[in-house]
């Protein structure tokens, strides 16, 4: 990461993944899950759904929706989050291609 000093404070440019910057082992997975939860929140807002209505539509208990809205989504897999988006009327496309490096990366792109 690039480092510089601004007004006496050491600043580091993010890698683009705050979880990796914090040194977490599942950084890419957490970044993907965060992106999916952001999209679920947007969908709920766009559809005007309460947590209870969203929970029913997504097929999860309301307390899990509440936890998700408060940033706790560790109890939900990426697959379950994708299923929630599908149930909210969103398509998900998974694209596989050769990596530019020896190890590939997960990326979430939204429109």
Features:
111 residues, mainly alpha, 434 Repressor (Amino-terminal Domain), two-stranded antiparallel ribbon, 5 helices
Helices and strands in order:
Blueprint: E1 3-6, E2 9-12, H1 18-21, H2 27-47, H3 51-58, H4 62-69, H5 78-87
Antiparallel strand pairs: 1-2
Fold and architecture overview:
The longest helix has 21 residues. The relative contact order is 0.14. The two termini are 28 Å apart. The protein is mainly α and 111 residues long. The protein has a domain of 62 residues: Orthogonal Bundle (434 Repressor (Amino-terminal Domain)), CATH 1.10.260.
Alpha-carbon distance between the two ends = 28 Å
Indicate the radius of gyration in whole angstroms: 17 Å
Low-confidence stretches: none
- Biggest sheet, spatial arrangement of strands: 1-2
Number of H- or I-type helical stretches: 5
What would the CATH topology of the domain at 26-87 be? Answer: 434 Repressor (Amino-terminal Domain)
Beta percentage is 5-15%
Under CATH at level 1, the class of the domain at 26-87 stands as Mainly Alpha
Sheet with the most strands?
A: 2 strands, antiparallel
Overall geometric form: globular
Question: What is this structure, in a nutshell?
Answer:
By secondary structure, this protein is mostly helical.
């Amino acid at each position: 990461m690039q480092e510089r000093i601004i007004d006496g404070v050491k600043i580091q440019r993010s890698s683009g993944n705050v979880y990796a910057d914090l040194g977490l082992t599942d950084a890419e997975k957490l970044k993907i899950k965060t992106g999916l939860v952001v999209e679920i929140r947007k969908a709920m807002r766009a559809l005007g759904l309460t947590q209870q209505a969203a929970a029913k539509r997504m097929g999860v208990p309301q307390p899990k929706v509440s936890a998700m809205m408060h940033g706790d989504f560790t109890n939900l897999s990426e697959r379950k989050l994708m299923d929630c988006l599908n149930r909210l009327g969103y398509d998900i496309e998974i694209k596989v291609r050769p990596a530019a490096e020896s190890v590939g990366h997960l990326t979430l792109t939204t429109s």
